[in-house]
Amino acid sequence: MNKDRYSIIFNSKTGNTRKLADAIHEALPQENCDLFGAVERDVPASETLYIGFWTDKGSADKATAELLAKLKNRKIFLFGTAGFGGSEEYFTNILDNVKKLINESNTVVGEYMCQGRMPGSVRARYVKMKEQPDPMPNLDMLIENFDKALSHPDAADLDRLKKMVTA
């Protein structure tokens, strides 16, 4: 294993997690980076892995979950995005679910979550649901959350992440 070397491995469905990965890459010494890219089968030899995911049903997406399950004796910094945001408790629950996927021989050295924009089809689905005879009572809140998520990850989100990885 390469000590002091790192890799940034991520899965980004809509580009949000990619923005976080880019911010980490900008903040860390480029010459120490073994791999920057999508989740693949081969795991780089880096001692520290920055692993990014998009949230799927309250945990990491399938490809990232499979990668995390394979890792042994690594330092892992988790980062991810979720369409719903505004609640640290929500993000903590997601991260707790993701950490359950990690073998105990690994050490989680950091974690970061922020809100990310969602595809327009999500908002359209909510609006269509409102037209139903007996719509869910929380649809207005879901539409409001969708609209708030459009600007994320924003500059403040990226700055917070950069400070975390260089601290």
UniProtKB/TrEMBL annotation:
Which species does the entry assign this protein to? Blautia obeum A2-162
* Transmembrane segments annotated in the record for this chain: none
Name under which the protein is recorded: Flavodoxin-like domain-containing protein
Residue span(s) of domain Flavodoxin-like:
8-165
The record's annotation in InterPro entries points to: BilS, Flavodoxin/NO_synth, Flavodoxin_CS, Flavoprotein-like_sf
MF terms (GO), sorted A to Z? electron transfer activity; FMN binding; oxidoreductase activity, acting on NAD(P)H
Quote the SUPFAM superfamilies the UniProt record gives: Flavoproteins
